[in-house]
Amino acid sequence: MFAGEYLCKLDEKGRFIVPSPMRERLEAAGNSVIFLKGAEQSLWVYPMAEWEKVLERTKTKLDEEQSRLFMHFVVSEAGTSDVDRAGRILIPGRLRKLVPVDEEQEIILVGLYNHMEVWNPAEWRRYLGQAEDKYEQNLSKILNLL
Question: What CATH number has the domain bearing residue 92?
Answer without folding.
Answer: 3.40.1550.20
